[in-house]
Structures are given as C-alpha cells and as structure tokens.
Amino acid sequence: MSGLQPGVWYAIAAEHDLPKDHVYRTMLGGHELAAWRSTDGAVHVWEDRCPHRGVRFSLGEVVGDELRCQYHAWRFGKTGACTFIPAQPDLKVPRTIHAAVWPVALSAGLVWSGIEPTGAPPELPPGAVLRAIPIARAAASVAHALVKEPLSGLALVLQPLDETATIVRGIALDDDLVRADHALLALRRRLEQAA
Amino acid sequence: MTPVDPILWNDWHPVAARCMLDPARAHETMLLGVPLVVTINADGTIAVQRVDHAAPHQDERYGLVWVCLGTPTREILPIPEADEPDRPIVVVGSVGVRASGPRVIENFLDLGHLGYVHARYLGDDPHTRVLPYTVEPLPEGGIIATQCKMFQPQASPAATEGFMVDYIYKVERPLATCLYKANPVQRDRFDIIFLIVQPVTEETSIAHPLLLCLPDGTTPAALRAFQQTIFMQDKPILENQVPKRLPLADGAELPIAADKSSVAYRRWLSAIGLTWGVIRADEKARAA
Amino acid sequence: MILYDAHHLAPCYAVRLLAGCLGVTLELEPLDVYPGHANQTEAFLALNPLGTLPVLVDGPCIITDWLEALAHLALTHDRAWFPAEHAALIGWLGMARDLGASAGAARLIDTFGAPGDAAAARAQANALLDEVERRLWFSERGFGERIGQDWLIEGPHPSIADLACFVFIAPCEDGGLSLRDRPALRRWCDRVRFLPGFVSMSGVFPPMANTGR
Among C172, C174, C181, which would you mutate to test the A interface (most chain A Cβ atoms within 10 Å of its Cβ)? Predict the structure, then answer.
C-alpha cells in the first residue's frame, strides 16, 4: 500500500505546525498520522486512529500531556499508552490499549518520521522553513519536474501522502518566503494542469 | 460486477421521506449503488424509478418511501407502536453521512459517547460511567440491550431537570435500530426513536430517524430540531472512523465491557453473513 | 433581542457565536427549516421577503442580512470586533459570503439534500480554502516587521471576519472538503474554539469538558 521506503526519514510537518494544545494531521505513504507536542516540547507521532473504534486522534484534543479521543474521551499519555477510560473509571487500563507510535526526529525546523528509519534525517542548509505545498500528483512526478526545472534558492524534500498526492517542504536559502511560495504555487499549477 | 449482498438486496430500505419531496423537483438518490429517482405528483402520488430498468418494489410506510431492489424476503420493518393512537410519527429529516451503514447503527447503540459527543444533551461529565447492562439475541434475529442507564441533563426538549434515564435498544434488521427511552413526564412509558439507514454505497449512507414519542407539549418542530442536533454531533465522529467499513474480526478494534451492544451487533452481522459495509473476519484487507 | 434561528445553518451560528463571545443574550426563535420549510410561511416572509435566516430583531431594527447582524452586534457591544480602520474587513466579509456559497452550499447539499451541484461547490470552495490557508499562514509566520498574528485581520483581537469565515470552514468536512493539508486553518479553528464565550453548532466540537480551559 505504501510505496514508502523503509529506513528513510520523511519530513511530515514543520516544527511550527505543532503549537501547544493542538493535534496536527497528515498522511505518509497512505498511512494517516497525528502529531502533537507534550508540555516538555517533545513531539509525538502516532497512527491517526484511536484503537477503540478507529476515530482519528486528530479530531481529538491535547490537554497537557495527554491526547483525548473525541469519541469516548479515552486519554492517551506521551508514550502512547491509554491512561483513562471514562466509561469505566475504575478500570486499570490494560497495556494492550495504546496508540500505534511512529518514530520521530526533529531537524532543520522540520518533523521527520518513517518506517524503521535509520541514521539521522537528511541535513538541510540554513534558511527559513517554507510553507508546505500539497500537489495532487505522485511524488515521482513532482521529483521529475524538479529535476527538469530546478527551483533556485530552495532546498526541497518531498512527503508522499499517497499514490496520488505529495507535499513539498523545505527551506528558502535567502529567507524570502513569499518568492518561494510563488515558485511552489507555480510548480503546482504546472503539474496539476498538465494531463 | 460482483452481486450486491443478497441480505440487503432482498430487503426493504427507506430512500426518501414524503415530507422532503417536492412536485417541482425530482429527488435523485442511490440505494446499494443503484441510482434511483423519486418523484411526487401534485396529487401526492409517489413513484420510484430506476434508469434503464423496471421500477423496483416500492411502498410507503411511516412517512418514508421504501424500496426493495431484489425480491423481498420479508415485509417492511414492522413498527407496532406506530398504530398506537396517541403516538404521532415525526419524520426527523434525512441526513447524509460519509460512513458505512453498520458504523451508523453501531454508533446509535453506544452509551459511552453520550456524555462527550452529546455533552449537556444526553449525558455529561462526570456522569459518564457506563453501568453494566444486558444484551441478548432476539428470537427473530437481531439483538436487544436492556437495563441501560445513563444520567442525562436534558434527555429531551420537555425535560426540565436531569435524571437517570432507562434505555432499551433493539436491532431487528442489519440497518435498522431503535431505542426505547423512559418518557420524562410519564416515567412508566417509553418514547421510541428509530434509526433506519439507507445504504447508498458501502461507505456512505443516509440516516432516516423517526420519532414515536408520547405527546407532552413538545412540538414536532422542536422534536426534530433536537434529534437533528444529536445526529449532526455524531456526523463528524462517524465520518472520521477508520476504516470506513465496520471490522467484524474480534480484536480488530478494542471493545471494553461498556461496548457489549457493539460486540453483539458485530457478531450478529458475522453470523448472518453480511458483506456490505463491513470487513469480514476472514477477509484480507481489500483496500480498507 | 430576538434571533429567528435554525441551529444547523451557519449564518445563524455566526450570530449566536458572536453573541456568545460578547456575552450577549439572544432570545432564540427556532424555525423548522428542514424539512418543515417554516422560513417559507406567509408570516416569516412578511418579516423577511427573502425567506433567509437568521433575522435579528433589536427593538425597532429588523436585520435580515447575517453579516449586517454581526456588524450591528459588534458596533453596539464591543467595537474591538469591528476593526473599521482596516479595508481588509470588507474583503474578508466578502470571502465569508463566497465560502457560504461554496463550502456552505456543499455542506447543505450533502447533509440535507439541498438542491445544487456539490462537486462544483467543492471545487470553488477548495480554491478559496487554499487562499485563506495561504494568507493565514503568512499572518502567523509573520514576515518583515510584522509579528505572528492569530486572526484574519491584523491586530491582537479577533473580528467578525474570523467568525463569519469560521462558521463555514470549521464544518466544511460535512460537505466533503478536507482540512487535512491545511494546517494553518486547523490551528486557527482551534484558536476560535478556545475563545472565551465560544458556543458550538452540532458538528463543531467545543473544547472538551474538564480541561481547565
């Protein structure tokens, strides 16, 4: 299903996408992911699905160091373990009830994850983190277009959402975010308007 | 084309409410993947048609238009209480939802969410503990859950204070469920809410709620508004459940004791061999 | 003040939401629009020949346009919600109407079977949502001398523009749209939800209980 290479770090968010008390939502290689920050600043990336009845964690809410599912308000702590079930408040929650936790690394102002990624995420040159642009084309098409017509002054990485869509992320080396945004939107128009 | 699940193909399903139909505009809808057109004349006659096909079996009952695309194996769901003279039927108004029919039914049975998704209407923190209740099979098929209790701050428009409400839930057809709820004014009798789900595609449905409530001064408009409010609160939950089709394998999702009805519903769907809108226990992931 | 209201209609919600944020009490007159068509009765059409909801009645003032109702409440209760010195206020209120005609329409078509072309409404909505996302992202991140902004219009205080757009953006997934790849919109929606006095519409989740907010 995924087309995700194991062993590889993929950028899935910018650090600025994760303010306090917020659940960020994205996809990677067909896997839905939720990300949030605990009070110590650490970032947690989980499969975006509560193990109870499959409701997306991204519909829920972060309260301090817990994520609460919107459906039955089950609480999950930083490790992914379920810590409280309001329908049965006296129950000592079995360890089998937990979120599916994904690996996380923070680098270059971005949040990275993947399937058994090895080593460190790719290094990016210094600059300003761009606004991420979704493009309704497979990552291979986007990569091909960037090879044919490279965008100057930008260091880019691709986040494959699934077989049909990709998010372009990266750094503007000259900090000119407006120019970078125009260039990426133009790329998007070229790719999405072509057959 | 794989044949559509015979259990549903040969059963009756609602496709429209009479009160939603307009002589000026044909109503286009879909049942089990089949496009249908429902029309009403100036004289009130309703007709359901299929494109390039003979008209399907059709009937009207309880203010809803029902269709069977195959050969009906039984009658339209009987609602004996609909014949009680002091119970007007209120059609709430159909609501589309991007969820599979079984997911919609299962949510209706769920008690643990009443104090959260429907906070201040059907339950409230901290009274969200689900007390033990009983679930049994029904002799003609389906399940019944009894001794369900939940503290509700405002269980209906007429209720002036919160109290412990007794519920009984039944599921008599795969996509039809009802609940009997203690009437807030006549506490020894029940109000009845039916939820009958029209399977549009395996991942989308239209919910047709019906109310059969004892008159207590609440207008039909107020009853409708309350039920619509409740369903609209469930809609984003239902639309954010993954996978869309209800997984029937034990262990696919993690029930707790409070989820007894859901477990029984899923097991019943497995036992009767339903394939529509579910992921069967023996199925390899077919693009879940 | 009386508000002729229907709970699930976003323009009605906008007025209730602003009233909540202002701490103003509205006497609600709910109408059974769906499926009762109570907004098409002679009595209601006498009040508002356009048959639209909401209608706000404040003493002798009968206001049949929801944006005007928002402006009226802001101007009479707390002008911080009406930043008249910013021309952008007009642009954003226009955007709110456009969101209503697109995202709002898709929601009504998919949810209540209202007439219309849902696919066309979604296509229009997607273009608008992309633009609101872009502008919000640049407001938040700030550039040049501007510091990070939380709201659609520059300044520390939310405005009626935020609420007018929120009531179509927050429930847009009811109409088959998605906020998944629009993280700035999702953050902004949370900021609106956490405003003191926030009230919800079914399908827009208020902050969960017992969270100390």
Answer: C181
Walk me through the domains of chain C, giving residue ranges and CATH numbers. Answer: 2-81 (3.40.30.10), 88-193 (1.20.1050.10)
Q: Which of C30, C112, C201 sits opposite B225 (nearest CB)?
A: C30
Closest residue in A to C141 (Cα) is A16
A98 and A133: one domain? Answer: no
pLDDT tens, residue by residue, B52-75: 899 999 999 999 999 999 999 999
Mutation site, C29, C31, C34, interface B, largest B CB count within 10 A: C34
Q: Which residues contact residue C37 at a Cβ distance below 8 angstroms, ignoring those fewer than 6 apart?
A: none
Q: Which of A192, A85, A149, B22 is nearest to C114 (CA)?
A: B22
| Contact: B116, A49; criterion CB under 8 Å | no
Set of chain C residues whose Cβ sits within 8 Å of the Cβ of B229: 7-8, 202
Nearest residue in B to A68, CA atom: B116
Look at residues A56, A88, A113 and tell me which one is the last residue of a structural domain: A113
Instruction: Say yes or no for a CB contact (<8 Å) between B253 and A52.
Output: yes
Domains of chain B (ranges, CATH numbers): 6-68 (2.20.25.680), 80-279 (3.90.380.10)
Contact A88 B237 (CB under 8 A): no
Residue A133 has φ and ψ, to the nearest 5°, of -120, 120
- pLDDT exceeds 90 at position B153: no
Nearest CA to B258 out of B102, B101, B140, B116 is that of B116
Structural domain contains residue A86: yes
| pTM of the predicted protein model | 0.95
Sequence-distant (6+) residues with CB within 8 A of C129 are: C99, C103, C169, C172, C177, C179, C182, C185
What are the per-10-residue average pLDDT scores of chain C (213 residues)? 97 98 97 91 96 97 98 98 97 98 98 95 98 93 67 94 98 97 97 96 87 56
Contacts of C113 (CB under 8 A, 6+ apart): B20, B27, B94, B96
State the Cα–Cα distance between residues C91 and C89, nearest whole angstrom.
5
Q: What is the ipTM of this complex?
A: 0.96
